[in-house]
């Protein structure tokens, strides 16, 4: 049961080199007219007037900029003005962006998208403000896109309707549209070279890259990142090969801890071209998701080589291609293949290699039953009566593993080194996703436009408001946690879970049951101290206290994805690419889904929703390079 206002301290830890994203200011909410929209106008006419002026701005009438944007406004552009991601704040920065973009930018015009009722101009709340929101159709010199604008009345400028947020994103390239719907294959294709081969024969030849065929793109990793971007590339006609060291597609989820269930809802997690069926559970068990990945790869005819590793790689600046050697085991036989892709995508997970504190004194002296990283944990062993388990780390994996130990009868202690943001899954869905990613919500790709249309500096302000409400709803649980000695925080500047995820990739727990066990002291907490050393049957903390342990699991997170690149491709490449994750100076995510700093090399990862959305944008960037619209 919720109580009154709840205050928990912020946690402003960010990744090295990243910035603590500033919170964007909002216009004064009292400047909104009392009658909204004014009776003399309509949302449609408000949008029409703004679109007319914005198209004039694109045509060179730069003096109209102050009529179009609030001083607190943000424009987020993904590949429509340049071949990169940008967030611009305020009319002056927006105007400089337009003037400095090649030939004034690729974006040529915008128009109202009235293709469905939920896209049509409508009055809506936006934080503490009242706005008119509408979807937009985008036209660029090379493609078409989608967008969304939120207009607010400026009573300090005669009630003129100005953009507080503008979002533009590329969806397709002219002349290189996806092979879907009216462009789908007939299924009866054949040629003289087929010599009687049917669809299955051709598919096998395609997936084995027979006859000297070469992939244009090589993807490392057959998780949600590799599969979604491969699906997008396929529909753009780009030959792509995914490799994975595991025996089966989906093993990256199958091999995780036994009780794992996704913490995001089904409506948020759909994959491109193929939604989960209507009877799919709200929260997906990991083995069910693994089987879906395998099904997805088969239905979409993706080229996947399992039991395959990258042995060597070399980039040629002169030929603009890679030479890679792959070691593959197929049908019990081992073979090496040398391929020459023009692009390599590292899609092994945005978190990179497991972070395991191997330099802890005495770690080799442990004589208990188990000492591992959470990525290696599957399930507690049998005969657990009287056994003691210590889990170091208090985010999603740490909580799930601690609960699994408790359910198996262990005496469990969690070591919490710093504070954790905790929210219940029901509250998170109710406050942040209701009406958007929900049973009665819009199509998921339209929901993505609404979600991604809020530039991160403004999104942070909205998340501060939402987090305050969520913590109020969950206050009984959260106060119970603090009473049990568990440190709770509210995220960067109080902006909650999503901003913490984008800032540092972790530091939170979406509660599905473990928190109440902590409140009830069925799972014990040792808070505020790092691990100093390990003995034969115990773990010693920095304050000198000692915890007996038969099993120790370090749920201590993962390294930056750049370190995975170093391990696989070597120091030279790792030093040439940007850091991955966290925010750049404009508030966009560093290094991910966009140019990495090394030609022909890309990072791709994130949760299922981020992979669904950004897979299209990465595929479009590669296609644009391949057809000569931009240099790689």
Automatic annotation (TrEMBL):
Source organism phylogeny: Eukaryota, Fungi, Dikarya, Ascomycota, Pezizomycotina
Which keywords fit this entry according to its UniProt record?
A: Oxidoreductase
Protein name (Swiss-Prot/TrEMBL) = FAD/NAD(P)-binding domain-containing protein
Q: Which PANTHER family match?
A: FLAVIN-BINDING MONOOXYGENASE-LIKE PROTEIN (AFU_ORTHOLOGUE AFUA_4G09220)
Any one GO molecular-function label of the UniProt entry: monooxygenase activity
Organism name: Letharia columbiana
Query: Coiled coil: which residue ranges?
Result: none
Asked whether the keyword Oxidoreductase is assigned, the reply is yes
Show the InterPro entries listed in the entry: Auxin_biosynth/cation_transpt, FAD/NAD-bd_sf
